[in-house]
Amino acid sequence: MSKQKNSKHERLTGEEAWAAAFGDVDHQPLLDGFGVSLPADALRLALTHRSFANENGMLPNNERLEFLGDAVLGLSVAERLYRDYPDRTESEISKMRAGVVNMYALADVAREIGLGDHVLLGRGEQLTNGKDKNSILADTTEAMLGAIYLEHGFQTAKDVILRLFKSRIESAPTVGLHMDWKTELLEKIAGRGLGEPEYNTTISGPAHDPHFTSTVSLQGKVWGHGEGHTKKEAEHHAAREANDAL
Fold first, then answer.
1. Quick one: pLDDT band at residue 10, thresholds 50, 70, 90?
2. Residue 178 reports pLDDT greater than 70
3. In the chain, what percentage of residues exceed pLDDT 90?
4. Which of 15, 120, 148, 180 has the most other CB atoms within 10 Å of its CB?
5. CA–CA distances in Å: residue 127 to residues 60, 104, 123, 130, 215
6. Sheet holding 211-218, edge to edge
């Protein structure tokens, strides 16, 4: 029976394939994990990865919702950190936020609520265990947050975020302040076709008090500048500025 069912789904295309794949899974446990309700069409869109959409007649995918969810997530976490740590500088709370809002944190949250089993993926991603890829889990989590925002508004979306990211926000002062911005930059540009970042660092000043200036470029375009008393520090700040610019 199962083989016949799979064969039938393989023959479907477009909207029929979309409806069949979505209907194969009970999504209520996922909604329970987020603590909200969503209309079926909104949930289906939020769970549709571009690989599935492209394989089935260029259906809509969740990338626009991902864009929206990323903004809602960033603002929610930034506001909480701003209020909870009034004595921290802009630079410090920026690092703290990056420690909470990054691909690995998002993917971990997704695993905690079992999101991977609900994502609609193309055959290629299915064969390479796409349901457990950090990038796919992170992007789909943001898409879900975007859908929640559109359906319920900012306050509900923020409440969901603060609950799901509670432990990470609480540990932000110890984790975020030691953020590796060069690694974060590599993660951010992964899959964008921008190549590897190139750092160009110069030194000035006397030997006993050197001053380093660094730039980081992607495909010949400078995205960040940084200064420091060591080469590492200058590159660190350049990478941070590039992350903000991107």
1. low
2. no
3. 56
4. 148
5. 22, 22, 6, 7, 40
6. 198-204, 211-218, 221-228
Q: Binding residue per annotation — 139?
A: yes
Residues designated catalytic: 70, 142
Q: Report all structural domains of the chain as residue ranges with CATH numbers, in order of start.
A: 14-176 (1.10.1520.10), 181-245 (3.30.160.20)
Task: Supply 241's token pair.
Answer: 């500025």
Q: 23-40, pLDDT tens digit by residue? A: 999 999 999 999 999 999
Annotation-wise, does 66 bind a ligand? yes
* Cα angle for residues 175, 178, 183 (degrees, 5° grid): 105
Cβ-contact 104, 134 below 8 angstroms: yes
Helix runs in 134-225, H state only: 134-152, 154-164, 166-170, 172-175, 181-189
Residues 8, 24 contacting (CB under 8 angstroms): no
